[in-house]
# Entry
Amino acid sequence: MRHLAADVLVIGAGAAGMYAAIAAAGQGAQVLLAERSLIGRGGATVMAQMTVAAAVGEAAPDHWQHHLADTLAAGRFLCDEALARLLCEEGVEVIKQIDAWKVGWARTPDGRMAQVHAPGHDRPRCVYVDFLATGTAVSRTLRTQLNRQGAVRRVGDLVVTDLVRRGGAVVGAVAWHLASGDVVTIAAKSTVIATGGLTRLYRRNSASANMGGDGYALALRAGAPLIDMEFVQFFPIGHLAPRLVGMDPIMWDPFRYKLGGRLLNRDGEELTQRYGVAEDGRYVATRDVATYAIAKEVEAGRGSPAGGAYLSFEHVPEARLREAFGPVIDRLAANGIDLTRMPVEVAPIAHYHMGGIRADAAMATAIPGLFAAGEAVGGANGANRLSGNAITEALAFGRRAGLSAAAHAARSREVDWSREAAADAVALLRDSAPARDRPNVAAMLAMLQDVMQDEVGPFRTQAKLASALARIAALRRDLGDRPFGSGGAYDAERLDWLDLRCMLAVAEVVARTALARTESRGAHQREDFPAMRPDWAVNQVVTLRDGAVALARESVRAASLQAVAV
Ligand SMILES: Cc1cc2nc3c(=O)[nH]c(=O)nc-3n(C[C@H](O)[C@H](O)[C@H](O)COP(=O)(O)OP(=O)(O)OC[C@H]3O[C@@H](n4cnc5c(N)ncnc54)[C@H](O)[C@@H]3O)c2cc1C
# Structure
């Protein structure tokens, strides 16, 4: 067993975790950045291809308050206003900061940042890096900055499996080192969860294998409340057909912005029109509306052959297509896709999680010593997120969490670590269920994804959710409480067991909160309660009590805009 120590432990090296580490180290803290995959390459950040929203006002006059107004409107009265404000206000600074760090935002001929108009924003507000390189550029830029910070120790292949609590505070974590099979304990004065979202819970998703909601489960088990867990955002136009190899399934969005791709049903009718939004190639329907429209058209038998909608650029002149798609047009051609002659088929896929760990505007959770950042945090986007807000959120929240965690560490003279406090979590990693008792954990994981897709997807009913909860409980019984596999290096069975342990805990919370919310709002659509109800303009907050999920309704935090304590 190995033991490490740091002032600040950051779990997860996406945009939020890397920025948190950079900011904390900038304050003089010794930082340990723990990542279950490769640093800067494990989660959503590096996969993002599109746009990042910030009121930098380069394409049109703008102010963060306009961005805030749009974010609150999209959130359907559920946004934590202090968090939404942080995203919009400090979003401007972080976007300019990483511009100064040479991220390479696309620019207009006169040298201003290019900004496109995305649905739900009142003006062109989204910056990007051409072509489809936004996330890789953000990730590379932060990795370069990390390399300049001597005070950040980076450890990849390190799966954090539990937080360690002592005297009511989080004092570090226990982890499993994939590459060696070693159990690792980490003492830290402050811990930041920056583990991203949960979309791997679903069969159709835009996620990497590292996005099974670990951070939510870690927080819950450590006693920290979660918020808005029922709000999973489905991205309406995930690629469906024809087969597309080596490209991101959500790649179509930026081209819809730029060129006004038309979303059509089987009969060639513009699809969102029936659902109250006439787009006419302008791409103005927000994600929840477009998801609803596609699902309903498919249900009515007006979907495309593979079970989605058509996305057509056939009306766009070839020269404009070439200019907008750049080298991507050749990659499409290699897949047999000629956009001048054919539409593609698209359908909703699980893409982002609005819910998450409850944090204040300093990114502090209810548990002393525990902070959160990025998609792991819930509340800023309420019931529905605007395009481009997620990377801004990761950067702004990451920076804030790093500053707060460093300040907390500076105030704590010594970390209150003890081996006894970590003993249960260590014992779990050393344990092994007898081989004869072990069901196929990979098959169980796929089964959970089916349950979530079919019964806790974009359209929910009481019956489906109750069935999902029963099936999740059965999977939990089968999983048991002793890990499978021997725990040696790269033990895939053990990794699946550890992943499924988190995924089942988080899936239960999503299904329970979805069952309790008897209305439809934003990304949470109940077919048996189709209207939005004023009495449901409240957040659901989840905690674990004696191992059982406990729900409470709380008033939405308005913009009392707490002073940020750093
Ligand atoms: C395909 C795709 C495209 C997207 N496009 C856009 C876009 O154009 N614009 C936009 O604003 N948003 C976009 N999003 C959303 C956005 O990318 C994410 O919300 C954001 O990048 C999240 O950043 P993060 O740092 O919070 O998490 P991530 O970038 O997901 O990083 C989390 C990290 O934590 C690690 N981790 C997880 N669990 C553990 C553990 N137990 N121990 C150690 N490490 C752990 C993961 O391996 C991962 O590296 C997109 C998302 C996807 C999936």
User: Anything to note?
Assistant: The longest helix spans residues 492-516. DSSP finds 14 helices and 19 strands in the chain. Residues 224 and 317 are 54 Å apart (CA to CA).
